[in-house]
Amino acid sequence: MPAELLDGKAIARNIRDEVAAGVAKLAPRGIRPGLAVVLVGDDPASAVYVKAKGKACEEAGMHSVTIRLPVDTSQGELDRQIDSLNADPAIHGILVQMPLPRQIAADSVIRRIKPEKDVDGFHPVNVGKMLIGDSDGFVPCTPAGIQVMLQRSGVRTAGKECVVVGRSNIVGKPMVALMLQNAPDANCTVTVCHSATADMAEHTRRADILIAAAGKTGLIKRDMVKPGAVVIDVGISRVEDASSPSGYKLAGDVAFDEVREVASLITPVPGGVGPMTIAMLLSNTLRAAERGAW
Ligand code: NAP
Q1: How far is it, in rounded angstroms, from Cα 187 to Cα 42?
Q2: 261-274 per-position pLDDT tens digit
Q3: Ligand 1 residue neighbourhood (C-beta within 6 Å)
């Protein structure tokens, strides 16, 4: 029997409704959660993501600011912009859209954002808190969304083998850190694969929960998946598609049609992990505002 679809869209909708309710609750205290998104340059994909984030904020009743800076913005100019947002009491969350132009050091930008406003969860303070299991910090939105999606779909994680393909700071590493915590929605035995892994299939075939975040279309094939596994596809790549008006379609890291035949639950691309990422960004921004420390 083909795997059931793990409907990220529906779960994300619920989270967004919960966030909107949380935003409404803050209104009598005169607090309106505010998210600032900084976009440097004119990368078309980034512009689409930024627009979607702004729209989602407004839908949830949040204050949303998008700061668009030219592609030749200097590090100093961006730093000053971040300092000003750090000091702005109407802004509770700051996100700098990646990738950044070459002249800007992304690491330094991430460190410049106040950890209390780092709703992307990339600041070393938040990364450290996540690793030691301190729930006071912010967790990066995509892995946080995957964990919530598993939890709300009734997937039991404790004692399971979880294999993560990819070790980026944005997805793979935080995913590993989350799933190995001694917590009810984690507690997995975690393996991480990357481009230097000698025999990836040997690892992926052991996975009860397989999370693919390599950015390589169709990397995970049917014979790499254990029957009954839960398969989470994080990858989003554009592939040519003559039948689509845009000339392309979005594809994940999992060969969906064939893997669906063996998995028990699987996320589609699009409509799986993607919507959860934005929902968790809103959720993190609400949390930042609820703290109300500024
Ligand atoms: P990334 O920074 O390029 O990292 C990719 C990781 O995959 C690296 O660790 C790389 O290994 C590993 N990898 C690449 N090819 C591999 C292979 N053939 N076998 C095993 N491992 C391989 O990408 P990312 O930012 O983590 O994103 C990954 C994918 O998720 C992309 O398609 C991205 O668009 C998508 N994404 C989606 C969302 C969402 O909301 N749905 C959010 C973020 C990212 P090395 O470390 O050895 O190079």
Answers
A1: 41
A2: 999 999 999 999 99
A3: 142, 165-168, 170-172, 193-197, 200, 213-216, 219, 234-237, 273-274, 277
96/61 same-domain check = yes
pTM: predicted TM-score of the whole model, two decimal places: 0.97
Nearest to 86 by CA among 109, 56, 58, 70: 109
- Residue 114, SS3? coil
What are the φ/ψ torsions at residue 70 (nearest 5 degrees)?
-65, 160
In a shared domain, residues 82 and 149: no
Range of the domain at 217: 141-273
Can you say whether residue 61 is alpha, beta or left, with left for phi > 0 and alpha for psi between -120 and 50 degrees? Answer: left
The minimum-distance atom of ligand 1 relative to the CA of 252 is 32
Residue 77 burial (CB count, 10 A): 14
Strand 237-240 versus strand 63-69 pairing type = unpaired
d(CA 182, CA 203): 22
pLDDT digits (tens, 9 = 90+) for 190-233: 999 999 999 999 999 999 999 999 999 999 999 999 999 999 99
Confidence of residue 294 (pLDDT cuts 50, 70, 90): very low
Q: Which atom of ligand 1 lies closest to the CA of 196?
A: 47
**Do residue 52 and residue 107 come from a single domain?**
yes
